[in-house]
Amino acid sequence: MVGVSGVGLTLREAFQGCIGEGIEYLSQLQTGTDLLLEPGVDDWAGKLGPKALELVAALSERRMQPERALSWCRVTKLTDGGEVWLPADICLRRPPAQREFAPPFPLSIGSAAGPSRDAAALHGLLELIERDAASLWWRGGQLPRSLPPQPEAGIVAANLLQKLRHGVSTPRRTWLLDITTDIGVPCIAAVSCRADGSGFAFGLAARPTLEAAVRSAIVEMCQLELADNVVATKRSERGDEALNRQDRIHLQRAAIDADQCRLLQPVEECAAHLPLHATDASAIFGLIVQRLEKLGYDTFCIDLTRQRFAVPVVRVIAPGLQLEPSEIVTGRLQDAIVRTGGGATYTGGIPLI
């Protein structure tokens, strides 16, 4: 059983998002036409950078049968357009009997459907950057910053909240956190709570512009707020035994006192944002890939578009960026924890996602 959802300011937008998420999931499923390379891929290791090799080593240690070699999937290295191979189980959703290891993070992260291949690839890459920023903030303990004094972002937030909150009987307090990392792509966490600080909800977004990140984060935050009602209804109708793992994480997170958690209070400084002046998805994607390369992160791409759906679907992988959630802790997250003492100091180890 697989469930998908969509969110938008109109029913049409929400429906499109829902269908897109469904096609994205189905397109990730391994088919008979997917070319996999069987054991003996050592010759290709020389084409992988150090962070990709670290990822491959970590995945190899997770093999369910240590004597069983990994299967590999052909991907494109975006910095030079060359062909390389990465473990198949992080590229495709494979039948359980064929998996060499259980993926240590959701395969949905970095995968996206879109109206064009470039749009899908950009969306997938932005999601990787968003989750990396979220992890360095929530688990790494990097304090969020205030938004720069740009009236456009504030106007976007005020107008959108007025539209979304219109007619709400129980008001919520809402504010914005800038969790942009050294990558420089604007990344925003929109947070809200009840008047007494309970009921913490959040939304995340990395976008080419600050205004777009603010808008997307607020809409996602409101989607999470709706989960409050869903979980409450489940408990009232069927009791705690009706709650699934995500429901329980939601309850734990919602119990955080937003007024007392330091990770939810911005420091008075501004992050540096990467100037992404292009408007074309392909150009923006290229600029971000170049930025990641400059920081030492290779980016890989696999086109998962299926003829039966005819909707572009792309999976982007950037070894070294920290995914959230993920069972693998990268050096990037480890360094943040060493510098700050870690986010668990403020959250008690409660998961964000």
TrEMBL record:
PROSITE patterns: YCAO. Pfam families: YcaO. InterPro entries: YcaO-like_dom (IPR003776). PANTHER family: RIBOSOMAL PROTEIN S12 METHYLTHIOTRANSFERASE ACCESSORY FACTOR YCAO. This is YcaO-like family protein. Residues 6-353 form the YcaO domain.
